[in-house]
Amino acid sequence: MNASLETPQVIILLGPPGAGKGTHAPKLSQHLQVPHISTGDLFRYHLKEKTTLGEIADKYIQKGELVPDDIVIDMVIDRLSESDCKNGCILDGFPRTTFQAVSLESKVTDKIIKAIYFKASDEILFERITGRLCCKECNAVYHKSFFPPKEQDICDKCQSTLFQRKDDTKEVLKKRLEVYHLQTDPLIHFYDKKNALTEINVENTNSLEDIFQDILFSLKETTLSPS
Ligand code: AMP
Question: Ligand 1 pocket check: which of 13, 23, 39 to mutate, most ligand atoms within 8 Å of Cβ?
């Protein structure tokens, strides 16, 4: 059964690369009937469409660095102003710096902001990221061993070809994790201090369904209602 958000909420999925944000976000988006906004997907879309924004962002993405705050913030605030976000949205990969979090708060004053922290150790992330496969068209995420597509390299959902992201290599991931710990980890404290954080351990749980149930449970204290 789907649910709806009684009060408009911006639900932030916070956590390191490979923690499963991109796997659970589409399902959560469908369940809550609010859009899934992934900044990484938006940048990859711009890159595919060969826009100037895509070209600029790619320079940072390839090195495992963060795209400058002003560029990301403008892109996200623009997207949030679209009508499908009026009841809320799921933010995947944003904010990633304290400056982004403060900006989000100052621009979104009509919605509750809460964060779900996907907790996982660096060791497990290497295994997950280097085996990850993504769909070129619908952005669905798979894993060669843990969550393989039914047909090799073909998306179950839209039958497009799967690919490995250029930044999903061991070398780039090392840099991405360094950047994550330095710039994004402080957001755990930032949202915790505001009583806006719930934590989910994504390592010790057996199945993706268990994790999804944990996510729904973590949102329960707020305002989910059957639709
Ligand atoms: P993701 O798909 O979330 O792993 O993002 C891929 C890459 O896009 C990141 O490694 C960054 O280079 C860039 N990116 C995505 N979101 C942000 C953000 N909020 N701030 C800065 N850079 C970002």
Answer: 39
